Amino acid sequence: MEMRDRLLFRQQAYVGGEWCDADSRETLDVLNPFDGNVIGTVPKMGQAETARAIRCADVALVAWKAKTGKERGAILRKWHDLIEANSDDLALLLTLEQGKPLAEAKGELTYALSFVEWFAEEAKRVYGDVLPNTRSDQRLLAIKQPVGVCGAIIAWNFPSALVTRKVSPALAAGCTVVLKPAELTPFAALALAHLAAQAGIPPGVFNVVTGDPVQIGKELSANPVVRKLTFTGSTETGRLLMQQCASNIKKLSLELGGNAPFIVFEDADLDAAIEGLLASKFRNAGQTCVCANRVYVHAAVVDEFADKLVARIRQMKLGNGLDSAVSLGPLIDRRAVAKVSRLVEDARAKGAQVLAGGKLQKEGTLLYEATLLLGITSDMQIAREEIFGPVVGITTFSTEQEALAMANDSPSGLAAYFFSADLERSWRLMEGLEYGIVGINTGMVSNEVGPFGGIKESGVGREGSKYGIEEFLEIKYVCLSGKSLNTSPY
Fold this sequence. Notes:
The active site is at 255. Its EC number is 1.2.1.-. Pfam families: Aldedh (PF00171). This is Glutarate-semialdehyde dehydrogenase. Keywords: Oxidoreductase. The protein is α/β, with parallel strands linked by helices. It has two domains: 6-256 and 458-477, Aldehyde Dehydrogenase, Chain A, domain 1, CATH 3.40.605; 261-440, Aldehyde Dehydrogenase, Chain A, domain 2 (3-Layer(aba) Sandwich). 37% of the residues lie in helices and 21% in strands. It has helices at residues 47-66, 69-85, 87-98, 102-122, 161-173, 187-199, 213-222, 235-245, 270-282, 302-313, 334-349, 400-408, 423-432, 465-468, and strands at 13-15, 18-20, 27-31, 38-43, 129-131, 138-146, 149-153, 176-180, 206-208, 226-232, 251-255, 260-264, 292-298, 353-356, 371-374, 391-397, 412-413, 415-419, 437-440, 455-456, 459-460, 473-481. Strands 14-15-16-13-12-18-19 form a seven-stranded mixed β-sheet, sandwiched between helices. Helix 1 packs across helix 7 and helix 2 packs across helix 6. The longest helix has 21 residues, at 102-122. The mean pLDDT is 97.
């Protein structure tokens, strides 16, 4: 790897301010999804190493939470500046381990930076309240304090942004963190931990453990010292972690699977809708939880919409993310390819038309072509499952009520999108869609200012925004009583 700073490429875990190996000395290979080559290895840690990291975080908590929000924010700002200064190296590392095109990797780093900057500023804006008295000899207060030690488990699709979206508010609030990155993409998190240490984040405040997801997850959820668990990943894993955390009633933030509807009405600007769909669907090869998954197009415009979309899809170049001309990288692994292939073949067998793509670029690779299917019906698997791949399946509709009913017919409730020029309809749909995030006439909704999260089986809690730091705080009610209070000259 042609990195300016090779120290960013870390092949050890980071615990208590030290770079360390697994007790067993076992390691996991990390592969480049484009060519299958081994990039490097990371320690295969388990329960014992995770417990040590938790103890380090607990020891570090006392001094870290005693700092003022302004002091913590200043350190986070230094972390931000170091990430920004090393963004080219970090983007290269992202592309190598995750596969996304380099331009997208740089975009992810910009997104990641926005959370560090935002929460560095929010650290000094954690407000309590002076409450109305019920008695003249009492004063009532509500103050906010850090939850304590936090466990964080992240997915592989945004290995840098998910770190900063979780760690930044936790540190800003005064919490300490034990982070487990995805075993497929650990190097981004380790590089960020290296920069965090350089920024002055004290030993034990931010720890990164790599290895066995089952053992690490069990320890983070079962250990009573950990008072908060934040997780991004599948609904199935989120449900399991929720059950494991029930024994000691941890505070939880779960950002789980999505199955986003994308509705195009007959009065929509079709060119804008096409651009919105391309941005939402094909970013990261369709491997995002908020990407368009079920596309509903009004029958009056479906043919024109499909023709325009086919033309744009055929312009996409599939290949190595390090090639500047490539707009679509590989899927993450063979399980992802198998799932996408299964969904497409099931739809094809049940009558869907393949207007573009529909297969691997070359057998034996993870490069799946950008695909457009027309004539999706409710009996097809692709109409019910989250695709997590570069496949658009179009279902037609005739009325607003029909579109809304199909959109809401899902246990998921993360993101939804629609395109329409009708303002009254926009209000109706905005309120009627059962989703935590709604994009109107746009396919890109994520930023540091908006609260990110879902309802129903898509999780609990919000990330980013002014609400994000609240997930790492507890409210303490204080009742101060004294006879002299009701004789105050004021």
